[in-house]
Amino acid sequence: MNNKLVIYNTLSREKEIFKPINPPFVGLYVCGPTVYGDVHLGNCRTFISFDLIYRYLLFLGYKVRYVRNITDAGHLEGDRDEGDDKFSKKARLERVEPMEIVQRYTVRFHDIMRLFNSLPPNIEPTATGHIAEQIEMIKKIIDHGFGYEVNGTVYFDVEKYSDEYNYTVLTNRNLDEMLNNTRDLGGQDEKRGRLDFALWIKAKPEHIMRWPSPWGWGFPGWHIECSAMSSKYLGDTFDIHGGGMDLAATHHTNEIAQSQACSKTQPATYWMHTNMLTVNGTRMSKSAGNGFLPQQLFTGEHPLLKQGFSPMTIRFFMLQAHYRSTLDFSNEALEAAEKGFGRLMSACSLVSKLTASEKSTVNISPLRDRCISAMNDDFNSPILIAELFEAVRMINSIYDKKLFIDVNDLAELNSLINDFVYDVLGLKEEVEQTNDLNSIMDFVIKLRMEAKISQDYALSDKIRDGLQEIGIKLNDGKEATNWTKS
Fold it and tell me: Are 296 and 284 in contact (CB under 8 A)?
């Protein structure tokens, strides 16, 4: 077991050596999608980042229970308990059952995650499947004096909680400033304090998704579901809780308060947050008109895109930035990622074609150590990728007979590629595109061979040089011509 993994903990705002509560077992909870619409690209970045983290924990030998919830109820249009329930509103507009909306977008979400080659979580609980657990947690919060009921709605008493615990421990915000900056909102006359939030909401007569409770018919607040489900599957205290940084100020802050009010303990030892996406330096958002759905990136059908990009290109692009860094989308950056991904995968495909020599002029072990060191430093995928491009240089030089590798180092090189390119980064060959390109290249190489046989060397050189310009290198051997992406 590797005990040198260092993680940045949002809770302490420092890097800490990872020490699981019950090694080798690790509990990982990530806030999943709200399935009233298509998953947006910011969500995808979060889930791809935590897929990397999950994969690396498995690589280190930990037994991970990865829980990622599905929010399919109780999500209002505002974080302060105002507005319509988004599921009910969409169901009324489309004249369907709310669970039809849930099923449609859950299936789409899973399809997108498969395209990005993300491993599924061990458990994927839904809010509607855990109403009883949420009600029981709310009852305990009331019993402990931190919740109160008004006309069928149950609120969390933030100011009373703050008398005993640090409500802003995750964000380090000033509580008095938060109170002064909070607007008067609907339902404010019911609440004891401006920051109080709903644990259970009384359903209006027209509300479709509703359940019986000790306080009458209603539905759970948004925040309570994660507290209830994480404690059910991972215990009152577990190792890692993750999500996007946009969740820290409200959702995760309220999760901590709920869990601590219920069980009198911090729910997670390490809190991890992914950073935001920008487009050409501007924050990505629907209101700015620069938001992308994954499908638009795949097809290129968006005003800001010149072309479509494959799922693996997008995954590679995202992993080129550290999960805590802002990631900026632009056509130029995506095109560069497409070329980089092509170079990496072309080199990986050459490994099986390398022949061992009696002696090595390369040493793979230090490269493996540097790859591990990169990932042990808060899952630093950009540094890992930089080290893997050193492997790309080695592979191409060995293939061109400029460097030599013995049997043992060749086995180590093959293991390095399998471990870090395929298992940790989760990259893979895009088979359909690769097969199409193979067929095209077979045809082009045949044309060039015919030109050489007919002594049309000008055409032969033109084909070779033209391919070189678009990033494809021809390698003329004694028996055949092979090609690689340069």
Answer: no
User: What CA–CA distance (Å, rounded) separates 408 from 3?
Assistant: 27
Mean pLDDT per 10-residue segment, the chain (486 residues): 84 97 98 92 95 98 98 72 74 87 94 97 97 98 98 97 97 86 62 95 89 96 96 98 96 98 97 94 79 89 91 98 96 96 96 95 97 98 98 97 97 98 96 63 84 83 84 77 72
Structure tokens, 392: 């790309």
In 3D, which of 332, 79, 101, 353 has the Cα closest to residue 223?
79
DSSP calls for 7-27: EEETTTTEEEE---SBTTEEE
Q: For helices 311-319 and 331-350, what crossing angle results, to 10°?
A: 100
Query: Token pair for residue 229?
Result: 């489900």
Structure tokens at 66: 């990865």
Structure-block tokens of residue 202: 């009384």
**Residue burial 407-422, b: 16+ Cβ < 10 Å; e: rest:** eebbebbeebbeebbe
> Cβ distance 343 to 486 under 8 Å?
yes
Strands 238-244 and 25-30 turn out to be parallel
8 Å CB contact between 188 and 194: yes
CA distances to 445, 448, 478 from 459, rounded to whole Å, are: 12, 7, 20
pTM above 0.90, yes or no: no
Residue found under tokens 């070329």: 339
With tokens 């298509």, the residue in question is: 38
Contacting residues for 306 by C-beta, under 8 A, at least 6 apart: 300, 331
Single-letter amino acid, residue 128: T
Q: Determine contact, residues 255/227, Cβ cutoff 8 Å.
A: yes
Distance CA 73, CA 71 (A): 6
What would you measure as the largest C-alpha separation in the chain, in angstroms? Answer: 91
Structural domains of the chain in order of their starting residue, each with its CATH number? 6-274 (3.40.50.620), 278-424 (1.20.120.640), 431-485 (no CATH)
What sign for the dihedral angle of Cα 395, 401, 404, 407? positive
Residue 239's SS3 state is: strand
- What letter does residue 264 receive in the DSSP assignment? S
DSSP H or E run through 30: strand 25-30
Strand, helix or coil at 211? strand
Distance between CA atoms of residues 268 and 240, nearest Å: 6
CA geometry: angle 355, 357, 361, nearest 5 deg: 110
Encoding tokens for residue 430?
């895009």
CA 55 vs CA 58, 244, 427: distances in Å: 5, 19, 12
Contacts (Cβ under 8 Å, ≥6 apart) of 315: 48, 116, 117, 426, 427
